[in-house]
Amino acid sequence: MPDAVRPLIAGNWKMNGLRETGQALAQTIAKRRPGQACDLLLCPPATLLEMVGAALTGSGVLLGAQDCHQEIKGAHTGDVSAAMLADVGCRFVILGHSERRGEGHGETDADVAAKVQTAHGEGLVAIVCVGERAAEHAQGATLTVIESQIKGSLPEGVTPENTVIAYEPVWAIGSGRTPISEEIEAAHKRIRANLGARFGTPEAFRILYGGSVTAANAPEILSIHGVNGALVGGASLDAEAFCKIAESCG
Predict the structure, then answer these.
(1) Is residue 221 assigned to a domain?
(2) Cα–Cα distance for residue pair 4/65, rounded to 1 Å
(3) Can you give the residue range of the structural domain that contains 148?
(4) How many other CB atoms are there within 10 angstroms of residue 4's CB atom?
(5) In this structure, is the dihedral angle defined by the CA atoms of residues 239, 84, 169 and 190, taken in order, positive or negative?
(6) Could you tell me where the DSSP H helices lie in the chain?
(7) What's the pTM?
(8) What is the CATH number of the domain that holds 198?
(9) Which one of 97, 120, 137, 188 is the catalytic residue?
């Protein structure tokens, strides 16, 4: 990987895993602990956070969550606060994933920005997801869309230490398709330019690629200039595949 910042390989388990299977998966990854050239992160469902955290103890593999509420506490049935996540040992939280922004939950850029600010307040690193839909990609609007999302989804106070960006083209997630290398590089370049213009030190930010990342395509994706790791979905549920992806960092 050609860039100076330490890469991050994050596994987003989404709504998958029960206690037995989740514990076994975490233990296998913790025991193997691949990718010494990168940071490794697991983001299981909220029901498994404490168990997975225990399985990762002493391994160096980090624990993260998949979402948090923008309020610190209160009457929000079914939601989880950033403080609760920090309390069970999370270091990271994924925010603004397309599956939260889309039809399922309808989160706006402003919603995401509020969550990021709350996460920062509890000492969590926010992994903020941006990416275009299929129609927007077909219209050549990718860079315009992600620039708008970056502008609207990040509050003041963002730094390379408290925020990671994940470029996830919505049409690629779970589809088995990925953008060509030139498209990924252009998207990451535009994201980095926007981060630099607003927050400074653009080269210090970690920008991940996500969307149908596999053990087979990871070496090519991770070799693209400006790509500092991957946000992995389906392949993170397979210990062997996830470890191979991590090993692609060098």
Answers:
(1) no
(2) 26
(3) 8-212+230-240
(4) 8
(5) negative
(6) 19-32, 49-56, 82-87, 98-101, 109-121, 134-138, 142-153, 181-199, 218-222, 239-247
(7) 0.97
(8) 3.20.20.70
(9) 97
> Tokens at residue 82, please?
């950033």
Q: Is residue 104 part of a domain?
A: yes
What's the number of domains the chain is made of? 1
Give me the pLDDT at residue 250, please.
73
What local confidence, expressed as pLDDT, does residue 41 receive? Answer: 98
For the record, the structure tokens of 226 come out as 């400006």
Residue 168 bears catalytic tag:
yes
How many Cα atoms sit within 13 Å of 200 on the Cβ side?
4
Task: State how beta strands 207-210 and 163-167 pair.
Answer: parallel
pLDDT in tens, 100-152: 998 889 999 999 999 999 999 999 999 999 999 999 999 999 999 999 999 99
Q: Confirm whether 2 is domain-assigned.
A: no
Does 97 qualify as catalytic in the annotation? yes
Residue 5 backbone phi and psi in degrees, to 5: -70, 150
Distance CA 21, CA 26 (A): 9
Residue ranges of the chain with per-residue pLDDT less than 50: 1-2
Catalytic position from the list 99, 107, 132, 168? 168
Residue 93: inside a domain: yes
